[in-house]
Batch of 4 targets.
Target 1
Amino acid sequence: MNGAITAMSLIGLVLFWTFLAWAKADPKVLPSPLAVWQIIQAEAASGALAHHMLATIARVAAAFGLAMGLGLLIGVTMGLNQTLDRWFGAWLLVFLNIPALVVIVLCYLWIGLNEVAAITAVALNKTAMVAVTIREGTRALDPKLGDMARSYGMSPLTRLRHLVLPQLWPFIASSTRNGLAIIWKIVLVVEFLGRSNGIGFQIHLYFQLFEIGYVMAYAFSFVLFILALEWSVISMMEKRATQWRLQE
């Protein structure tokens, strides 16, 4: 039922876009969904779409992995240690409020126009957000379960697997969804400013040529990829995150 509603909603969005394109009656300003789809097919047939899509996916995956790994480590550590949280909580606030564009420009200036700078810039922008979410999740852990685990002599690894992670899964799933939504957008800015391939690079190229159809084609191609990821991997993670509660 939910899948049918989602499909109908997306069809409605396409129909609304079609109406706007018809009302504007200028494909150079607002091409129709069919025109954009034809561009996507042409770019896919030439191999350009796959080349630039894979470059962007690689950057998103690398930056996402770094941000999630560092964010989990920092968030759990600060959530369990109040002293560290008092000393370094302000640091998280600072990094949360530094504009992404500033971090990107500084990384390019300090490291150079290369992949290391691109991935570092994206990861730094997201790490603080993950850390804050996981820190709040760690603070919300049930202390009674921890006392029970210690009374039964459970090892740290067993406690992590059976007590800590199940309680943190909703926060991890939330960080994953928000992280992907934000990271891929920041990656586009990184590619727009200083890379020679990727979806952002193509958008920059066609922006200069004022080819709105191509800009929309490359943007929506990656949106479709993210939607597929959302409805498969992330949805499965959410089910896993709430399964233990449904069994109570």
Target 2
Amino acid sequence: MSNQSPATGIVTDARTLGTSKMLILGIQHLFAMFGATVLVPAITGLNVSTTLFFAGIGTLLFHLVTKRKVPAFLGSSFAFLGAYGLITASGQEIPLTYSSIGVAVAGLVYLALALLFKFFGARQVMRYFPPIVTGPVIICIGMSLAGSAINNCNTNWLVAIVAIAVVVACNIWGKGMIKIIPILLAVISSYVFAVIIDADARAMLVQKVSEADWIGLPVIWENTGLSIFNQNLDWGMLITAVVTIAPISLATIVEHIGDMCAISSTVHKNFVADPGLHRTLLGDGLATTLAALFGAPANTTYGENTGVLALSKVYDPFVIRLAAVFAIVLSFCPKFAAIIVATPAATMGGVSLVLYGMISSVGVRNVVENQVDFTKSRNVLIAAMIMGLAIGVAYSGAIQIPVGSITISLSGMAVGALVGILMNAILPGKDYEFGVNELGDTSVNFGSRTK
């Protein structure tokens, strides 16, 4: 097999380009995923170094499971942002530990679906997760988070508007890498602006960076409420977290399939068939569960890195693995993590406002591009119940269900998703068939940019 196609310039073995070019390509992929990956821990309160470490480890694990064939990078999932806020709908102060356990179980759902995909195929399994279910669920994920973004913006709307303006400008007028990394550029621009005009932001940055070491372990072993180790767990909160968060995986699994189709289209190889969705789901699920157990966010394949593949025309998965190693190395620098932790709340608010809105927009896109027929009463009823329950319960407070000596709190997202799946399975008139509409099947992506 040739290392480069004369007609297209596509490189199939990056190691033939030489060490320097190969390193630059790896750094480029790290740069592309970087802003979005570190943004999730900055918003949720998870550890930045741990996040980078398990993004790298998760990517390497994914490549091992998928026979080193798929050029995909695994970074922090935006879809699970709600996992770190939804379970507090009842007013309880629930530590991040329980959220992490819920995300870990969500990763195990990937493994269960991987088995079903292996034995029954994607077309049969996806009948139970059609766009009429996943679309409204995705819409509600974004809508339920918007309030927290506004609260952060309220700390300094001028700083927040700078972040929003940069995201919009990069997406509309940006070219090449500028269009691929709008979130990173928005965070940097707004951050610098805040440090210039706000003395408190400058003081916070100086304090955090000066207190941090240059070198340190990325994994938190102490009983800090981030990892699940050394914890005295409350079973009521634990079950609440699992029941609330696990259903989110039903939307992210659809996102995963869309990403695999998008990468296949970019690279001109059918990764859905080889190594197969059962392997890619297994790799993604294992990476997510492993990360969550140690207090890092859920992992997901990144649209940003797919954009870099299209831009560079270097499709060798070795370059992605090189970027993963760079992420691991960077995770051992606490001073870098301190810079992220000192990010002004208004900067996070401005960027988050765009991201949460984009998540909801992805749900709308999922419904539209799959041409969901809303003249059918079943579809109207399913969408109505999902959105009514998800938003209604979120505003009124979680549903409390006593079970023996413990109390399980069901958030709006959990109730809406479960009711939607059940109604779709029971009501007659299913009309969605996976694999028929490629545009619709690939229309789910929670990345920081639109495709």
Target 3
Amino acid sequence: MNNQHYFFAVDLGATSGRTILGSLANGKLEQEELTRFPNNLIETGGHFYWDIYALYFEMIKGLQEVARRGIELTSIGIDTWGVDFVFIADDGAILRNPASYRDPHTFGRLEEYFEKVMDRKRVYDLTGIQFMNFNSLFQLYAMRQDGNVALRQAKKILFVPDALSWMLTGETVCEYTIASTSQMLNPRTGDLDEQLLKSVGLNREHFGRMVRPGTQIGVLTEEVQKMTGLGPVPVIAVAGHDTASAVAAVPAKNEKFAYLSSGTWSLMGIETPEAIINAQSYDYNFTNEGGVEGTTRFLKNICGMWLYERCRKEWIASGERLEVRGERKLVRELSHPELQGSAMQVEAFRSIIAPDDKLFANPPSMIAAIRQYCRETGQQVPETPAELCRCIFDSLALRYRQVFQWLKEFASFELDVLHVIGGGSLNKYLNQFTADALGVEVLAGPQEGTAIGNIMMQAKSAGDVRDIWEMRRIIANSIETVAYHPTKDATAWAAGFERYLGYLEVSGKR
């Protein structure tokens, strides 16, 4: 008789999603990607939305594939990007597709909130969350000011992974790690803060019960059972925020590490037993987000491969060509390593940008935005795809250096290793730049950290593993990491960093 447990992970990012089947066997994690699909932004009426029904449909398709194979699932877990949410009416209907954090309706609202509603320092003291205009608090404030009808009629407000769990189970919860991204959760109380909710016209009853990673939410409804051919499979609240799941999958040997979750966003931080909320963390604008087993992810959000992804999309659309090994090829014909490798032929630090400048939030043209920044700061303007790639990679590594230096000031332990997880862990050029810029060993992998963390939290809920460190030992035994060591370019990187800081000062004054 086969007593092996099978776990179904739904892993949704801001550009794509996957369903994965995972299990543990002989002390190792086994996983198989069942489906992969795009997560498209919908632009209509001057706003950007996510298609929650399309995501639900893709979940059902993945579950139908499991049933077709005759596999008995132990549980289901869902992780997604942070801050966004779904409005539910009192009759159980979804009120409009959820707005995307990239919607421009929040531009300028953060400053307006601090001026008219609550002091900036007071908000940080309550939440310990990095100020970003798209945080849930400011989205809700913007919607309230704009007279958003869906918000006005909402009986429940569910963050995206909680909304998808509700669609599967009919149960409304508020998972801790995803709630911690909202700038409405107080880490000292472990719950949503009534003062902040009241400031946007809400109360605690608008949200589901607070649950921690590893809690069972419910089981598949009869409707979903009929559609999928499965039985009453439990749905588990994993670390619902994809970064929390990814950090849970860091194959660290002990707590003395920093991590970089590298994808559309770069998230660099450390794992701490408690939130760090003080004048220094406020000045540096660091965030305290929920982790597994009561830990805090003390980190900073950095605009990551979004810069490269957007440029590449433009090059493909315009039919841009690039010379590779003496032949001019269309960018769409090139692999990522080929396109990125061309950047290595460009002079280092030729052009440098501040990745988190507001110019790069969601411009009509990322290429034009990068060129504008370089012109405004008196630099050489990158023209070719190779020059733009080199600019992006140099700049990201320099920003990582800045944030890593700050982390060393907060950490109660030595930081001599950086674990890079997520899709960016495959970028060997950026990984080497990061090792050079930081002056520490960089360990790259796993690539699919979010899905692994999702599966392992389900395994913990099922009793297959004891704690986070057993999870990490199994993960380390199941994957291969690639080590990158600093080269002898320390002087060049130090000089590049000084230039970066100078451009940062110039751009901050415009």
Target 4
Amino acid sequence: MHARSAFLLGIVFCLSASVAHAQAPEGRRVLGAARGRLAIIDAQGKVEWEMPLKSQGHDLHMLPDGDVLTHKDAATVVEIDPARKEIVWSYTSRPRPGYNGPIEIHAFQRLDDGLTMIAETGNRRIIEVDRDGVIVHAMDLKIEKPNPHRDTRLARKLANGHYLVCQELDGAVHEYAPDGSIVWTYRLDLAGRPAKPGHDGHGTEVFGALRLAGGNTLIAAGNGNRLIEVDPAGKIVWSVDHDELPGIELKWITSLAVLPNGHVVFGNTHAGPDNPQLIEVDRDKKVVWTLKDFPNFGNDLAAAVVLDPPTAAR
């Protein structure tokens, strides 16, 4: 059997086995980017697959064909064939005319039409590029506090063609129409707690957001130390606060996914070795599963994907 086919067959088999035990998961397979490498950790906590990767990524995707979309460095997005451990596609963002500063990429997404959406800090825009690296669409972002490292964190193109963009330093989640107009905004606040600097501190520096099927928006509040769901009017209708889960302290809330059963999986980054790096909760805020694996992922696991079962939102 071809090595790539064998690898993909292994993923399908493991996914099927894990879904069968999803009622009471003892573990989950996780793809993560940290400590200078990409790695898949199996349900028993063992390294199933890994390859070196220099960048400390903020975004990460397992594509339908089993390839991995991730960072190579601060300004380069790559698609990797895991079976061969080879880059099969890449795109490097460069300063656009009139801008001479650094470029960083903190979010990207493979779209249904085959284009790749990329959020470029520094350039302060979202682009969509084809397989030849041609920019097919570009849209400027309205950044209040420009910073080539912190203009954006995660961004996603929505089913309606709009873009949901987390602007970290601005402390805001904006929904942009394709023409660059902002049609919806949610601004984070300190939730009644004093601001505290540092990676383990408290602030309004938002990291991720997903638009749910019913129209609400689920937000990974970054150093807001909480997970919140807001309705279209901006009212918080559900949340998990920094000290609400027994025995767990929430710090920088990062990666975000909704499983088919409605459970939410989110990243808890910079929280130290006494806290899990990934947490799965049900809608009653019961902790269903956690990943606590410092030997493999350390304190900076901001980009992680649960591979079983597949996420219901991307």
